[in-house]
User: What shape does this take?
Amino acid sequence: MFWLVAAGKMNQNTEMNFQFNVLPKGKLWWLMITTAIAMGRCIPALAVGAGSDASASSFLPTIANTAPAPTNAPPGMVWIPGGEFSMGCTVPNNGVCSLATMNAVNDSKPIHRVYVDGFWMDKTDVTNDEFDKFVKATGYKTIAEIAPTKEQFPTAPPENLVAGSTVFTPTTNAVPLDDYFQWWRYVHGANWRHPTGPDSDLKGKGNYPVVQVAYADAAAYAKWAGKRLPTEAEWEFAARGGLTGKTYFWGDELKPGGKWMANIYEGHFPYHDTGEDGYAGLAPVAQFPPNGYGLYDMAGNVWQWCSDWYRADYYEGLKATGAVVRNPQGPPSSYDPGDDQPERVHRGGSFLCTDEYCTRYMLGTRGKGDVDTGSNHLGFRCVASPN
Assistant: This one.
């Protein structure tokens, strides 16, 4: 709960800690970048660490398993066949391009081959109604509902030792995008029942994704439901829906035929979401077309917890093996030079993702989050291995 500490640091996945990380290669380098961005074009070789694999050609075909799906599908789940695929993300040759896009792929390279076994996956994110059943059956209290103690956070101001969570709060006008404290705040009384604070509730929102869940909360629900959280590799294989090397789960064009395919942030971040996609803020589940495997909301709306610890350099190690990595479970521990708190992977982006600040609704991009922290744009979905 970094918000409890006076010198807390937010995470990149929450559209907070945004740094361009452009290498200082002189005026010509910067001119090439800014010209490409002004023209709306991405030049893969300009992305930090892009190297020789920064193109669609680095994606080899997805080879899905062809065995028939098991019978007796669990309610609300679909079969993901598993197989071999190219995992990761590079700056796209076409489509939206911005410094945010370039930054979004820094930890998603190099592209590497992975194999995952088949599994069941929830069609949608876990909803408020579903989480409520879990709480009523178990009496479970989420981390956001339990007041932190001085022993846990000895440097935190006493006024911050109150149960609550982080909430996105739009600014009133345009602001520099280098200070996330302008639009994020720790709100006393914010939790899954009151996503934006004590004055909010879930009336009429039973089919909205549950938010304000920390990693332990999501894992506890999954265990109760006889499921588990997906690995990062499982999540990406499922999100791709059988496609190879596409920018989004539906293709390479953000709005095919002028149609919005996900709930993201339109307008000007962080002060005006026009709601052009039909929603300004959080949307109910399954309001946009599913991907090729029948999964909804694998881009935008809410971030989704994965079981892997987060390391920015993890993919480099997998690529270095020179082999197809089978069922990777993630690194043995978390390491992020920008955050000394243990972090797990987030995937999918949220309703706050925008080409002005965060484009992690693109396939293969990664997020991260402190394991004890929720927010009003973070949820989860579950998977299950076949019996």
